[in-house]
Specification:
Blueprint: E1 7-10, E2 13-16, H1 17-22, H2 30-39, H3 46-59, H4 64-81, H5 84-100, H6 104-121, H7 124-140, H8 144-160, H9 164-178
Antiparallel strand pairs: 1-2
Helix pairs in contact: 2-4, 3-4, 3-5, 4-5, 5-6, 5-7, 6-7, 7-8, 7-9, 8-9
Length: about 180
């Protein structure tokens, strides 16, 4: 589990997500950023995508532009790793960033991509987590019926796993549908 500073052991060294993110210059063309993001072979590991996800979530409350660059890099890196779970987590990170950037339709595309992958992998908790993250986007898009339907699905998943914390978070999001 990453520390609040976004650090964790990767390979022989310590990867600091904030430092790696700084290597991705905002003003550089997309192809340059992509090359930089995927150049380090020591980062071609699913654990790095997990670290990037946590850092994207943290950064969205601090520096949305940096969060976006890191979410974008996570997608490129996940594609280079060719690991479906990493692709799903990177897509969910991008969905989170886009939702908080008020780009709801593109966020939904990423959430749905993550959901599809997690479903194909049989990762029910991740399906529930992704649904929970999708709810606010659906609310802003005015798709309350779908939000309620998906919330019920997530509720069943969290109840089956006796995951009371995620169930409580889900209920808070469901309450926003009615607000």
């Amino acid at each position: 589990r990453p520390s609040p500073a976004g650090e964790n052991a990767v390979g022989c060294g310590v990867l600091k997500m904030s430092e790696w993110n700084e290597e991705l210059p905002a003003e550089a063309p997309e192809e340059t950023r992509k090359r930089i993001a995927t150049a380090r072979r020591d980062l071609h590991r699913p654990e790095v995508i997990g670290l990037a996800y946590g850092e994207v979530v943290r950064l969205t409350r601090i520096d949305l532009a940096r969060a976006g660059r890191l979410a974008e890099a996570a997608i490129w890196l996940a594609d280079a790793i060719v690991d479906p779970a990493s692709r799903a987590l990177a897509a969910r990170a991008m969905g989170h960033f886009l939702y908080l950037s008020r780009c709801y339709a593109p966020a939904l595309v990423h959430y749905e991509a993550a959901l599809e992958i997690y479903e194909s992998l049989g990762r029910s908790i991740d399906v529930g987590r992704t649904i929970n993250g999708t709810l606010q986007t659906l609310i802003y898009l005015g798709n309350w019926t779908r939000a309620l339907s998906l919330a019920e699905r997530a509720r069943l998943i969290f109840e089956e796993h006796h995951d009371l914390l995620r169930l409580a978070r889900l209920e808070c999001n469901v309450a926003n549908i009615y607000y």
